[in-house]
User: Fold this.
Amino acid sequence: MARFRYRAFQADGRVVSDVVSAISESEAVRDLMGQGLTPFEMTDAGSTAAARQGKPAGKQPPQVLAGFCRNLASMLAGGLPLDEALKLLADDPEDKRVSRLSNELRSGVLNGQSLADAMAGLRTPPADYVIGLIRAGEEGGSTVPVLNRLADSIDNELRLTEAVRGALIYPAILLLTAIISICIILLVVAPALEPVLETSGNETPAAAAWLMAASHGLRDTWPLLTISPLVIWLLAMSWSRTPAGRGSMSALAMRLPVIGLLIRDMESARCLTSLSALLENGVSLVPAMEIAGQGARNPLVRKALDRIADEVRVGVRLSDAIANDGFLPMTASQLAAVGERSGDMASQLAQASSILESRSRRRIATLTTLAGPVMTLALGVLIGGIVLTLLSAIMSVNDLAV
Assistant:
């Protein structure tokens, strides 16, 4: 009999941690659920835990997870046992990543683990809220709806992410084109014009003199200017992986005009979707908020959910706690109040998530519409100004009036 170290929520929302003996993790979870506890973290207290600590960190790609959840839900809805469904997915030659994921999970299931426990033991496990949601679905006998809900949620998140990336492609191409054009002017055109200006005997216009100075500066420091952005980017990426770095980067992003509100709405929609699904599958409010908060990518959103959960734990209504905290959008508080009156909190939070996703898409569309023309105008003015400066220098050589 193995020993498992666990952390779980009591009925009043308090967190307890201890060690339990059971044949398998799934058996340990069932024992704890029978005692009125809701486990959200389970690790082997023996050698298996030590082995797991050596696994590389990572997260399951969302595209793979969405496809896996949808395919597995279809097979389970058709009456296939879990191990047979995983075997069919593992034998699929068309999607190697889903096949590899299914094979790993099937090994755990055949060893007596539940699907949630097998996911938690993966080398690249999914987010905590995914594991918690599947565990709640298994305990409540609603694995198929949970998997479909997860697939829909991940697909919505992917659509928002792709919309953001698509919005950045055109401005990025414009910026890159402008940088290349300016470098060609300063490194090729300006040096060719400089001897003509020096031998003309006329006074060089101030704008042309500034342009030549910029050309000299770029030619003298181009190695530093080429390497420095790469070094800064590598340092920033390394720093952003630390807790302090993630917090600072998140705080900076949230302070940006328009972008900050967009990030807040997208992260809030994601957490509300997870919270709604957990509530729908029988998880009580405070534990569901804790699990949903663990899946938040933005540390500020995670802290906000923790603060709200602390208020709910002492008896404050969810709608009031959200309104008092002031971080999450007011839409969440308003629909939470509707859910408290109607007794259907899960569907109202899902509706709040849908509203925030729609608002995020509209903002992304607006930014996409405005970014192209604004950047085109700004870069056109910049490059046009440089070209006019060169023309004024050429005309000064020929004693032309400008």
